[in-house]
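pasting for the record
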Amino acid sequence: MPTLIPYLNFDGNAEEAFNFYRSVFGGEFMGEGFMRFGGMPDSDQLPDDVKNRVMHVTLPVGDTFLMASDTMPGFGGDFVVGNNSQIMINPETREEADRLFNALSEGGKAEMPMADTFWGAYFGSFTDKYGVNWMIHHQTAPTEEN
């Protein structure tokens, strides 16, 4: 059974928000803590104000996680209040990832088709026909989080 994880998007204040959530829920951030857009491949081509934005952060909360990132202004997916959350599914296999992506995105709009990523995952994202935002994330390479 895949895991469902709430994934939040922020407009440059993900670090502030997640430090607040950590003060409420306790615990420690997983992995390296705040991964920055400045740490991804070809980040030297990004504007300086984007490089320090949070690319990903994970906070364990009970038996699940709360995850987030900042948006990248001018690079699509701009921040819109009310449309700044997604549901992430972590299927156990690539085949299940493809099945879920194809079934849930039918009649919707794919943002990023399923593909291997630089962070070691098989990943895709879309908005379903009901306007719900989804991410499918199958981890293919070991990380500090798993």
